[in-house]
Specification:
The protein is an alpha+beta fold. The protein contains four helices and six strands, in the order αααββαββββ. It has helices at about 1-20, 25-50, 50-55, 75-85, and strands spanning about 60-65, 70-75, 90-100, 110-120, 125-140, 145-150.
């Protein structure tokens, strides 16, 4: 009878131990979902408020974007100046990530996919360019995601 009390006690301790454990959070999976949502929100802001508003808003303070002729635009302020150019006033941009991944700790991630860039020149002629984008995302201290490379 004594052995049954010991076994029952061990089982109770094991049950209580398992019940008290917090489930592991899938930081990578959570980050991937948040990055997909950040992409959607970024696109919505681009559509609703324009390129010149959305690109600096979603830029990390140290973000870098590839400019004309493979130049690099460095920093949120410079990105804002770059995208406030009249060349972007009559432009629209749409994109869709085909792939998203994130670091195991959930602090960095990246996406890539296709984009369509449309712009009108001063005569109203519409030009359309398509291509592949690649964005690197960084989770901010406030939990929001900003791009560090676009």
């Amino acid at each position: 009878m004594h052995i049954f009390k010991i076994i029952a006690g061990c089982m109770l301790v094991a049950f209580l131990y398992c019940a008290c454990q917090t489930p592991e959070v899938d930081l990578k999976g959570k980050a991937k979902q948040e990055i997909v949502q950040a992409e959607k929100d970024f696109l919505k802001m681009t559509t609703d408020q324009g390129i010149k508003v959305a690109f600096p808003y979603y830029a990390d303070s140290n973000a870098v974007v590839k400019g004309d002729k493979d130049s690099l635009i460095k920093g949120k302020t410079a990105i804002g100046i770059f995208y406030s150019s009249s060349a972007f006033t009559n432009s629209t941009l749409t994109w869709s990530p085909d792939f998203v991944d994130a670091s195991d700790d959930g602090n960095f991630g990246y996406t890539y996919g296709n984009y369509v860039w449309k712009s009108k020149d001063s005569t109203g002629k519409l030009s359309e360019f398509t291509g592949i984008f690649h964005t690197v995302w960084k989770k901010q201290k406030d939990g929001n995601w900003k791009y560090v490379w676009d």
